[in-house]
C-alpha cells in the first residue's frame, strides 16, 4: 500500500551522491626500489680556468647489490655549453635530461639566444622539485657569458653553486680526495686528473660505483665527453 512520505521523511532522506574519489600515486616500497636500475654513482664537477670538468663512474646496479651494466655514460650534454650527470634511478635521470633538453631548445627557438646557466640551473631545480623524477641528485656544469659554473641539484629542488662538488653514493670518499687535490686556477687537463682521482677513490670503497670513468670537458666551444676503462689513461 502506497504511503505518502511525510515532511520528516523527506527531510531525513539524502539522494545518493557519487562523488569522484581522489586517487593517489602508488608508494614505492623498499622491495620495489631494489628492482629499479640505479646508477649508485660517484659524480664530480670542477670549475676551471678553461671551463668545467665533470667526471663520473660507469656502473649501474639493481638496488646497489647486482651490477646490471658496466658501461653507463652518466654525463650528457643538455645545452651547447652545459652538461648534466645522471645520479639515482636511470629512468628518472634519463627523463630529466630529455625534459631539460626540450626546454633549452624551446628557449633558444623562442628568444633567439642561448639560456644562461643561472636560468638553466633554476629550471633544473624546479623540475627536480615538481616533476615525476625518482631519486635524482645531478651535477650541472656549464659556461656562459657570466663565467664557469658548477651546481649540485638535490631531489627537493635545491640548487647550490660551488667551485667543485660531488654527488652520489661515493661522495664521502670522493670528497676527501677532492679536498686534498683541488686548488684554485686548475686547467681542464689538471682538473681531469683531479676529478678522475676522486672517482677512483670512491670506486675502491663504494659498491655502487665502478668500472671506469667518463670525463666531460665543457668550454665556450662546446662539450666533449670521453670514457676510460683504465684510470691510468687519465691519472
From TrEMBL:
<dbReference type="GO" id="GO:0010498">
    <property type="term" value="P:proteasomal protein catabolic process"/>
</dbReference>
<feature type="region of interest" description="Disordered">
    <location>
        <begin position="1"/>
        <end position="37"/>
    </location>
</feature>
<dbReference type="InterPro" id="IPR023333">
    <property type="entry name" value="Proteasome_suB-type"/>
</dbReference>
<keyword id="KW-0865">Zymogen</keyword>
<dbReference type="Pfam" id="PF00227">
    <property type="entry name" value="Proteasome"/>
</dbReference>
<dbReference type="GO" id="GO:0005737">
    <property type="term" value="C:cytoplasm"/>
</dbReference>
<feature type="propeptide" description="Removed in mature form; by autocatalysis">
    <location>
        <begin position="1"/>
        <end position="40"/>
    </location>
</feature>
<dbReference type="InterPro" id="IPR000243">
    <property type="entry name" value="Pept_T1A_subB"/>
</dbReference>
<dbReference type="GO" id="GO:0019774">
    <property type="term" value="C:proteasome core complex, beta-subunit complex"/>
</dbReference>
<dbReference type="GO" id="GO:0004298">
    <property type="term" value="F:threonine-type endopeptidase activity"/>
</dbReference>
<comment type="similarity">
    <text>Belongs to the peptidase T1B family.</text>
</comment>
<keyword id="KW-0963">Cytoplasm</keyword>
<dbReference type="InterPro" id="IPR029055">
    <property type="entry name" value="Ntn_hydrolases_N"/>
</dbReference>
<dbReference type="InterPro" id="IPR001353">
    <property type="entry name" value="Proteasome_sua/b"/>
</dbReference>
<protein>
    <recommendedName>
        <fullName>Proteasome subunit beta</fullName>
        <ecNumber>3.4.25.1</ecNumber>
    </recommendedName>
</protein>
<keyword id="KW-0378">Hydrolase</keyword>
<feature type="active site" description="Nucleophile">
    <location>
        <position position="41"/>
    </location>
</feature>
<feature type="compositionally biased region" description="Basic and acidic residues">
    <location>
        <begin position="1"/>
        <end position="14"/>
    </location>
</feature>
<keyword id="KW-0888">Threonine protease</keyword>
<keyword id="KW-0647">Proteasome</keyword>
<dbReference type="InterPro" id="IPR019983">
    <property type="entry name" value="Pept_T1A_Psome_bsu_arc"/>
</dbReference>
<keyword id="KW-0068">Autocatalytic cleavage</keyword>
<keyword id="KW-0645">Protease</keyword>
<comment type="function">
    <text>Component of the proteasome core, a large protease complex with broad specificity involved in protein degradation.</text>
</comment>
<comment type="subunit">
    <text>The 20S proteasome core is composed of 14 alpha and 14 beta subunits that assemble into four stacked heptameric rings, resulting in a barrel-shaped structure. The two inner rings, each composed of seven catalytic beta subunits, are sandwiched by two outer rings, each composed of seven alpha subunits. The catalytic chamber with the active sites is on the inside of the barrel. Has a gated structure, the ends of the cylinder being occluded by the N-termini of the alpha-subunits. Is capped at one or both ends by the proteasome regulatory ATPase, PAN.</text>
</comment>
Amino acid at each position: 500500500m502506497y504511503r505518502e512520505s511525510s515532511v520528516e521523511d523527506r527531510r531525513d532522506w539524502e539522494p545518493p551522491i557519487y562523488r569522484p574519489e581522489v586517487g593517489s600515486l602508488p608508494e614505492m616500497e623498499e622491495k620495489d626500489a631494489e628492482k629499479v636500475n640505479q646508477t649508485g654513482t660517484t659524480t664530480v664537477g670542477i670549475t676551471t680556468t678553461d671551463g668545467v670538468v665533470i667526471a663520473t663512474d660507469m656502473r649501474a646496479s639493481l638496488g646497489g647489490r647486482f651490477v646490471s651494466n658496466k658501461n653507463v655514460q652518466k654525463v650528457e650534454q643538455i645545452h651547447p655549453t652545459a652538461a648534466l650527470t645522471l645520479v639515482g634511478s636511470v629512468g628518472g635521470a634519463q627523463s630529466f635530461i630529455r625534459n631539460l633538453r626540450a626546454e633549452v631548445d624551446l628557449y633558444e627557438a623562442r628568444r633567439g639566444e642561448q639560456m644562461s646557466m643561472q636560468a638553466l640551473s633554476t629550471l633544473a631545480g624546479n623540475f627536480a622539485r615538481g616533476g615525476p623524477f625518482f631519486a635524482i641528485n645531478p651535477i650541472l656544469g656549464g659556461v656562459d657569458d657570466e663565467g664557469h659554473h658548477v651546481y649540485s641539484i638535490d631531489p627537493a629542488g635545491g640548487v647550490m653553486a660551488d667551485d667543485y662538488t660531488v654527488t652520489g653514493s661515493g661522495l664521502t670518499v670522493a670528497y676527501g680526495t677532492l679536498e686534498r687535490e683541488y686548488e684554485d686556477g686548475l686547467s681542464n687537463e689538471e682538473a681531469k686528473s683531479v676529478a678522475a682521482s676522486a672517482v677512483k677513490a670512491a670506486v675502491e670503497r663504494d659498491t655502487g660505483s665502478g668500472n671506469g670513468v667518463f670525463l666531460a670537458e665543457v668550454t665556450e666551444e662546446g662539450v666533449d665527453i670521453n670514457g676510460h676503462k683504465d684510470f691510468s689513461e687519465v691519472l
